[in-house]
Design brief:
Strand order of the largest sheet: 2-1-3-4-5-6-7-8
Shape: globular
Number of strands: 15
Bound molecules: 2,6-di-O-phosphono-beta-D-fructofuranose
Helix content: 25-40%
Strand content: 15-25%
Radius of gyration: 19 Å
Largest sheet: 8 strands, mixed
Number of helices: 7
């Protein structure tokens, strides 16, 4: 077996950059431990609850953020942390060349039902500022805390999957993964159908029409509602994930966050041969205007994403 350390040492990247990824892997292994035992330790994942001793509990996403921050502070090569849990970027007093943007616990509304959640992260050159396009990412990854803890990583050219072993090391379980070009599985929250734009409506209607409709094949729908779980399924067996702009999210720019959700997932998917778009633009080309900016997200198997892009191309922007 190849451990994460062996694999990182063999990558043609700056060893300091590799150390940033190793730091996020270590933080993820600690978060996996906390989540695994959370129901026994009485952690509900909800803020404002008290434990059996009557002590105030921190929400699991706050605990996860603390774990990440704690590990980041120990790595002198990381000088800035942007986190979904923190309003402002944290500037750490060192000369570290790297910035980490993270959603420390994504999908947290699934915590109480023991469904896969995850930690997503993106690594940028800290000397180039907070608001860089996703194409400038030096590395990206996520940990998926499911039946197994998976760590999925890219330095921008290929995507590899590791699995957390019983002794706390990550073992390489799939190198150079590819997202199937064609697929018939789509993921979207259909409860929002009344809010969708014409392009989303058109694409989904074709899928629902099945083999006798314009898509010419029967589609299936899967929506975990935890982005890490949905994207992990798509990376492993193909498919498309859509959280498009709709009449409710339009005022905020979208639902999901650009810096620590859309960008890292887009880099992972594209490095595995898939596509990513807002519908009208490649996600990785967007220049952020704020650290917590939201964007529409459509990514996955190239042929399915191209079908959605074709719908947007023939639908005028609002
Ligand atoms: P959550 O709020 O539980 O953290 O990041 C936001 C996110 O989950 C994604 O993981 C998930 O894909 C999405 O929200 C689900 O949104 P809906 O509840 O609107 O379906």
């Amino acid at each position: 077996m190849t451990t994460l350390s062996d694999w990182l040492a063999a990558q043609p990247v700056d060893p300091k950059l590799a150390s940033v990824v190793a730091t996020m892997a270590t933080a993820s292994a600690e978060i996996a431990d906390v989540l695994r035992l959370a129901p026994i330790s009485g952690q509900t994942g909800l803020a404002g609850q008290t434990n059996v001793q009557g002590e105030a509990q921190k929400a699991l996403d706050v605990i996860s953020n603390d774990i990440v921050l704690n590990h980041i502070r120990k790595n002198p090569d990381i000088s800035i942390l942007v986190s979904e849990e923190l309003d402002e970027a944290v500037h750490i007093e060192n000369q570290g060349r790297f910035l980490v943007a993270t959603d420390p616990l994504d999908g947290s509304s699934n915590l109480d039902v023991n469904v896969t959640v995850g930690t997503i992260f993106s690594v940028l050159d800290a000397t180039k500022g907070l608001l860089q396009p996703g194409s400038a990412q030096l590395a990206a990854g996520y940990a998926a805390y499911g039946p197994a803890t998976s760590l999925v990583l890219t330095f921008g050219t290929s995507t590899a999957v590791f699995t957390l072993d019983a002794d706390g090391t990550f073992q390489l379980t799939l190198d150079n993964m590819t997202v199937a070009t064609a697929s018939a599985e789509y993921a979207i929250n259909t409860a929002r159908e009344r809010l969708w734009d014409a392009a989303t409506r058109g694409y989904v209607a074709e899928n629902v029409a099945g083999e006798t409709g314009p898509a010419g094949k029967r589609h299936n729908m899967r929506w975990v509602g935890s982005m890490v779980a949905d994207i992990h399924r798509i990376l492993m067996r193909g498919g498309i994930f859509l959280y498009p702009l709709d009449s409710e999210t339009i005022s905020k720019g979208g639902r999901l966050r650009l810096l620590y959700e859309a960008n890292p997932m887009a880099l992972l998917v594209e490095a595995a041969g898939g596509r990513s778009t807002t519908g009208r633009e490649r996600i990785l080309d967007l220049v952020p205007t704020g650290i917590h900016q939201r964007v529409p997200v459509i990514l996955g198997s190239a042929e399915e994403v191209a079908r959605v892009e074709a719908w947007y191309a023939k639908t005028p922007a609002n």
